[in-house]
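Mods, move this if it's the wrong board.
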Amino acid sequence: MRKAAFSLVLATIGRTKELDRLFNSLAAQTFHNFEVIVVDQNPDDRLAPHLERASSLGLVIRHIRQSTPNLAAARNTGIAAATGEWIGFPDDDCWYDATVLERLYIRFTTAEAPTGVIVHWAEQGPPPIAAPRLSWEKSSKFRDVPVASITLFFKRKIFDKIGGFDSRLGVGQWFGAAEETDLVLRALHTGALVAYEPSAQVHHPVAANMSSLTPQARLVARNRARGTGALYAKHRLPAWVIARGLVAPVLRPILKGSIGAELAHGYAVTRGRLDGLLGWNRHQH
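Not the wrong board. Structure tokens:
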């Protein structure tokens, strides 16, 4: 089997037509030495025509089945199967600018040779003005470049050192998010050089406006916030960082005079972070 420069680990469940947009963007890449490892958590063959179409576009597709849905665990399955020197984690509803992999290849092969590169999520707005690299000091205080799984690219060897994603965190788990931030924090804690590359851009739909949130959406927000609370406990973050994280979601709307849906959303986030902080030791085994 030819070794790829990049392995793109795509964990997917439920979606179908969104994958075509991603595959189209991958087929348009100006850098071609990559493989796509599709970790399929669906109970049926709904992906078959979309994977066949991707192959017809010239993409190297490797299809792996995983019966128990768990986003972090599925990505770990993909990491274990990867042949590439560098690994990325596209969502099944994201897509790439055509030059992303070319820009990453250039960045990874410079004299600086970073362990990881964070690219820019275009829909989140303009890139930070000055953020050449991430640091443990800033990231552990949540003052660094925002991190999302679609923006992460790491050298394969870092996973041998720190392990993969923590499968207790992420979509479908009680701690419903933060597996990507946890991964970055663990890498930074070992001294890994994680650089920021704003010229490489990926795309992903943004969440709906906060004012349109329903009670069900607030339950989702609380579930996701448990992941942040888990990070407070897992990484033994400073008390002032934890206090700020618990107070800020409700204080901001109060100061703005927004006592409707925005305050309700903030309260759900605070409750979720507290859930995660207090629940980490109980749920970690």
